[in-house]
Amino acid sequence: MSTSPEHPLLNIRNLNVEFDSGRPGAPLRAVDGVDLHVSEGETVGLVGESGSGKTTIGRAVLGLTEPTAGSVSFDGDDITRAGWKKRRALSKHLQVVFQDPYSSLNPARTIGQTMSETLRVHNKCSRYETRERVIVQLEKVGLDRSALGCYPAHFSGGQRQRVAIARALIAEPRLVICDEPVSALDLSVQAQVLNLFRTLQKDHGLSYLFIAHDLAVVRFLSHRIVVLYRGQIMEQGPAEAVYQEPLHPYTQALLAAAPVPEPKEQKKRREERIKHTTAPSSTGASPTGCPFATRCPHVEERCRTERPPLGPAPGNTLVACHRWKEINDANRRQARELIGSKPRVA
């Protein structure tokens, strides 16, 4: 069944997830009223710092964390509180690649055994057919048949993550939840794995919900980006629009936090970030007002008492900020003044 934005493959509506804080009073709200969807063949990047709720959303989709309220639908079927049998059948179409390639593979089983297990659950294949399908899948991720009899300890982190990707894709899923799949890898290996994700999507029409804390990584792979802070969506829209012209102060802060190769520019960014984010961040959504109010350099009284709605903005984006228009108009004026103040070269 093909999908469209009106009938998405994955549809999350008003999702709320709460945890016991271990202290008297209200529970910790890790996810607060989140709406998002993923269409067939689309990558949606879910980005935010630690504690923003992005992994909790992924776990709610996978059935590993029970939502407090809201719904999760897959291909039109409500799976919010699906039972064990339904989840087992669903796992053929919905797979996951976890962050840590060192702990996501069973160290006591060979790669061949691990990948064959997935096929035994979902497909009735002969031993020979299973072996051949495993070999084909390994080759798709850049590994050869010699990996079949090897244990995870024999591989590097990047190779283990390739195995994890092959294991997820051997069931021929329609949607893969990618939970920080490259954050434990060095930069050169990150690029290889990201290119692999893109190639596999092109070849197989996969959909990804790609969870990460690095906006540049998310931008590389995503068609749309959703920016989370303390369980709430701050901004969302087409990847290039959100990355090139971020409208929410938090998205701008995420970009400013990204390292750059020029030491002077890096020092300048660090000083600006420290100046604008002196208040400590706490996990859990704010019951009233904007959750970013305690850290925002543009805060006013209304921000602390009135939660901003997620409203339309230029570039087909949505922004949850009372002052996004005046803030960005001021930024443009400042940029024009800086350009105008530069001496002309004869």
TrEMBL record:
Positions of the UniProt region annotated as Disordered = 258-291
Under Pfam families, the record lists: ABC_tran (PF00005), oligo_HPY (PF08352)
Residue spans with biased composition (Basic and acidic residues)?
262-275
Alphabetized, the UniProt keywords read: ATP-binding, Nucleotide-binding, Transport
Q: Where does this protein have compositionally biased stretches of type Low complexity?
A: 277-289
Q: Which CDD domains match?
A: ABC_NikE_OppD_transporters
**Highest taxon of source:** Bacteria
Q: What GO terms are given for molecular function?
A: ATP binding; ATP hydrolysis activity
One GO biological process term: transmembrane transport
Keyword Endoplasmic reticulum applies: no
Residue ranges of every copy of the ABC transporter domain listed in the record = 12-255
Homology family: Belongs to the ABC transporter superfamily.
What protein name applies here? Answer: ABC transporter ATP-binding protein
